UniProtKB/TrEMBL annotation, chain A:
Keyword Protein biosynthesis listed: yes
Sequence similarity: Belongs to the prokaryotic/mitochondrial release factor family.
Species, as recorded: Centaurea solstitialis
HAMAP family: Rel_fac_2
SMART domains per UniProt: PCRF
NCBIfam families: prfB (TIGR00020)
GO molecular function, one term: translation release factor activity, codon specific
Protein name according to UniProt: Peptide chain release factor domain-containing protein
Lineage: Eukaryota, Viridiplantae, Streptophyta, Embryophyta, Tracheophyta
Domain of life of the source: Eukaryota
From TrEMBL, chain B:
Gene source species: Centaurea solstitialis
Signal peptide: none
Keyword Chaperone: no
InterPro entries tied to this protein: DNA_methylase_N6_adenine_CS, HemK-like, RF_glutamine_MTase_cyano, SAM-dependent_MTases_sf, Small_mtfrase_dom
Protein keywords: Methyltransferase, S-adenosyl-L-methionine, Transferase
UniProt name for this protein: Methyltransferase small domain-containing protein
GO molecular function: nucleic acid binding; protein methyltransferase activity; S-adenosylmethionine-dependent methyltransferase activity
One example of a Gene Ontology biological process annotation: methylation
Pfam families cross-referenced by the UniProt entry: MTS
Length: 476, 377
């Protein structure tokens, strides 16, 4: 059946289109062997690819191969031809049609298609589609220069970015393609009175519609380092035990949030308060997009409550400051640390040391002398590992500092990054006289502080990310 | 209370039990290795007991309910908290915070899935698998607090650099400071261009008074595919433990363990040694009585006592370095601090005038002058 579609499609193109010529070439030998050997899906260049796992399994392999082939053609020729169904319907066309979007349970293909098309448009917007295409062309151009690999570090960066952007581009094009094919299939099924096929295709559309909701979110995390793991640091503000207790609660909130999301959490550095909570602590959060999400938490968090540490039962306001820094992969660091710039100290040690002492505490603090930035770790079981951990924190902080510096030179990003300075009050948690958590940037609020403090902060994060993304887009 | 965990296998005949322990340790080792693959003779083969298997390497054959474990954990926490700064004030021992951290590590080593104790909400089965009986965990923590038994002996291992070394009573627990010895060696080896037999990297290295084998294993890994290492210790427990650790890191073809006193097992190697490292006993005899309880009451005196001024063994090593090292050979010694460092350098510059060059004193991370390094002329 797929060859029927092929032929139909081919006939629908104007004969001047590159696509037409290629497709006509394909038709005579479009047997499976050709499709599998030459045109494999090959967009796994980076970890940024959104998974295309929800591709309908009910559609036969050959049809899939066909879609890959066409997708690939679009890229290899840089053809400006917009993908469309056999009767010329495009994704933009579907959006323009403004078909009513009904509830997911309504088995109406137009409604599904419309929802999907809208999602795709949103994803494109979030990925800054036009800029992405320009950037991609620029990178391709650079990669084609014969001397590019003379500077392997630079070349590596360029080719990584190229791979990442290419992956995103292919992903979105693939989604468009998939949508149009399902529509084609439905039309074909109707023509041929194939009720099963129609039903299956509508189901496939529904699955696509559902999985795209998730992808809309993921598209929010399109920043260069969003997919990285990160460090989250919490520091108690002024105000003694009450604010140390608050800092401890905030840290606990992030630990629980990270666990909920399935991230690994390790305490790297912790200075406890004498009576309660923490003076400061740093945790490492390992997992995909940990930085992308957690960066939305940077700033000062304010608590209002009757302090359990105040015998007079007065209401107190305290602050905890949150900083988040990305853990960049080897080779993508922004700063090269030189050993001679470091001062490495064992702290909390006293006495003669060496054979005199049996200690299990081998805390290490590293100071980067030129910047004065420090990092400490005491939770590892050997000094060597404490040093390695502290180095990772230091590297992350220096990278972040450098990124901010670079961004400040690049006016376009200044806004969003300086907003993230850690003195800015971003959220208010009120336990008394009323109960509410409110984000001061988005005005998003919930009336159940307990669930928030138990780590349910995703809604805050997503509303912030959405809003700042829209803001940025408006500026462009 | 049941203390039999350490001797569980001893009902079997000594040889059989040694097999079992070896097999077990090997099945857990980083790379499986043949049981017997030594081609050098051991003087006085130790007939004594076998190295104890560190807690984290034992099979999780015991179990306890979550609530029983939590009960134990709460009891242990309370005990740790009750210490406050008492130990610190009396002899610079651990405070509550240190003890709490140790308790987490004990849990890490004793439980098959330690994360479940922290996040019980993820547990499907309220039974947790343990590597020791719950009763033993009570006993071990009591020993830690009441007898001040070093934590590393309690769990049978010490994390040192990127290694996890088996340790037990009778062998010194390697110190964090000593990790730097390996960095010092790495530093001189890296500077070298080629790695032929004439150089440092491809040459013969010696670790005298190796204890658990820590420095030697660190060095062997720095040397990579080159060179070889001979380690010496007088203590038979140390020799056994060092052998165990060497095997666990699959370095038995690279590191030979010899029992004997200092240079004695090295006769015939005069002038052929490329690198000599040692952390010999350096505490003045008079200070032994006032040591932190974990050290003074539990660690072997043979590993600590350096004679009246603590310099007896260091001076002996100095003399030996002059005769054993080949020209260009490197040495590094750990000392008790500034005074011993200065004394050693002075000794080498005067008594061995012209024998050594590039003598350096290196500080540890606490800022204490800890190491003396140099090269044989
Ligand atoms: C301070 S410990 C060092 C252990 C190990 N190198 C480390 O750094 O952890 C000193 C070691 O020297 C050993 N030792 C003492 N006297 C010795 C001697 N006469 N010959 C060889 N080794 C000796 C002790 O048994 C002990 O293992």
């Amino acid at each position: 059946m797929s060859s029927i579609i092929l032929i139909r499609r081919a006939y629908n193109r104007s004969s001047s289109s590159i696509l037409f010529r290629f497709q006509s070439l394909f038709i005579p030998n479009s047997h499976p062997q050709f499709s599998t050997s030459t045109v494999k899906p090959q967009n796994h260049a980076s970890g940024f690819d959104l998974p295309s796992k929800n591709v309908s399994s009910s559609i036969s392999n050959e049809r899939l191969n066909f879609s890959y082939r066409r997708r690939l053609l679009l890229f290899s020729t840089q053809a400006a031809v917009e993908a469309s169904t056999s009767d010329g319907l495009t994704v933009d066309g579907i959006v323009a049609n403004q078909w009513t979007i009904l509830d997911e349970n309504e088995s109406d293909w137009k409604s599904h298609a419309s929802a999907i098309a809208q999602s795709i448009c949103l994803i494109k917007k979030r990925l800054k589609w036009k800029e992405l295409k320009v950037r991609l062309e620029l990178l391709s151009f650079q990669l084609e220069k014969p001397d590019i690999w003379d500077d392997p570090v630079h070349a590596g960066k360029i080719s990584r970015e190229h791979g990442t952007l290419m992956g995103k581009m292919k992903e979105v094009n693939g989604l468009e393609q998939e949508l149009l094919e399902h529509i084609d299939m439905i039309k074909l099924a109707r023509e041929e009175d194939d009720v099963d096929l129609e039903l299956e295709s509508v189901k496939a559309l529904l699955r696509m519609r559902q999985s795209l909701k998730e992808k809309e979110l993921e598209a929010l995390l399109a920043g260069e380092h969003d997919s990285c793991s990160c460090f989250i640091e919490v520091q108690a503000g002024a105000g003694g035990t009450e604010s140390m207790d608050w800092a401890g609660m905030v840290m606990q909130m992030y630990k629980m949030w990270a666990q909920r999301r399935g991230y690994g959490v390790t305490v790297v550095d912790e200075m406890r308060g004498e009576i309660a909570g923490i003076k400061r602590a740093t945790v490492r959060v390992d997992g995909e997009y940990a930085y992308g999400y957690a960066k939305a938490e940077v700033g000062a968090h304010r608590l209002v409550r009757i302090s359990p540490f105040d015998s007079a039962k007065r209401r107190h306001t305290s602050f905890a400051a949150v900083a988040v820094t990305p853990i960049l992969g080897d080779g993508s660091h922004h700063v090269q640390i030189s050993e001679s710039d470091l001062r490495i100290e064992r702290y909390r040690s006293g006495g003669a040391g060496g054979q005199h002492a049996n200690v299990t505490d081998s805390a290490v603090r590293i100071t980067h002398i030129p910047t004065g930035i420090t990092a400490a770790c005491q939770n590892e079981r050997s000094q060597h590992q404490n040093k390695a951990s502290a180095m990772a924190v230091l590297q992350s902080r220096l990278d972040q500092r450098e990124m901010v510096r670079q961004a400040q030179m690049n006016a376009q990003y200044t806004q969003s990054l300086t907003d993230n300075s850690w003195g800015n009050q971003i959220r208010s948690y009120v336990l008394h006289p009323y109960r509410m958590v409110k984000d001061l940037r988005t005005n998003f609020e919930v009336s159940d502080p307990d669930s928030v403090l138990e780590g349910e902060i995703d809604d805050f994060i997503l509303s912030y990310l959405t809003e700042s993304m829209d803001k940025e887009n408006d500026q462009v | 209370m049941n203390l039999s965990i350490f001797t569980k296998t001893s009902i079997l005949s000594p040889t059989l039990s040694s097999r079992i322990i070896l097999n077990r340790s090997i099945s857990n080792s980083i790379t499986p290795t043949p049981i017997i693959s030594r081609c050098y003779p051991i003087p006085n083969p130790p007939i004594s007991t076998n190295p104890k298997t560190p807690l984290f390497l034992r099979p999780p054959t015991f179990s306890a309910t979550l609530s029983d474990l939590q009960k134990w954990q709460n009891w242990a926490k309370t005990l740790a908290s009750s210490i406050g700064s008492t130990f610190t004030d009396s002899d610079n021992g651990p405070n509550s915070e240190n003890l709490h951290r140790e308790l987490n590590w004990l849990i890490e080593d004793a439980l098959e899935n330690p994360q479940f104790l922290q996040n019980p909400q993820f547990i499907e089965n309220p039974q947790l698998q343990l590597r020791a009986e719950l009763g033993d965990l009570y006993e071990l923590w009591k020993q830690r607090i009441e007898e001040r038994r070093p934590f590393q002996y309690v769990v049978g291992c010490e994390h040192w650099r990127d290694l996890v070394l088996s340790v037990e009573e009778g062998v010194l627990i390697p110190r964090p400071e000593t990790e730097l010895m390996v960095d010092l060696v790495e530093g001189v080896v890296k500077e070298e261009e080629d790695d032929d037999d004439d150089g440092l990297k491809g040459g013969l290295w010696v670790d005298l008074g190796t204890g658990s084998g820590a420095i030697a294993i660190g060095i062997a890994r720095v040397l990579g595919g080159f060179g070889r290492v001979i380690v010496v210790d007088l203590s038979s427990v140390a020799v056994r433990v060092a052998e165990f650790n060497v095997k666990r890191y699959n370095l038995q073809d690279k590191i030979s363990v010899k029992q004997g006193s200092w240079f004695e097992p090295l006769s015939g190697f005069e002038g052929r040694v490329a690198g000599l490292v040692s952390n010999p006993p350096y505490i003045p005899s008079g200070h032994i009585g006032g040591l932190q309880a974990e050290v003074g009451r539990h660690e072997p005196r043979l590993a600590l006592d350096g004679g009246e001024d603590g310099m007896a063994d260091l001076l002996h090593l100095c003399n030996g370095a002059a005769s054993m090292l080949k020209s260009g050979g490197f040495f590094a010694f750990e000392t008790n601090g500034e005074d011993q460092c200065k004394f050693l350098v002075d000794h080498m510059e005067t008594v061995y005038y012209g024998s050594f060059y590039n003598l350096k004193i290196v500080k540890d991370f606490a800022g204490i002058e800890r190491f003396v390094t140099g090269f044989r002329s």
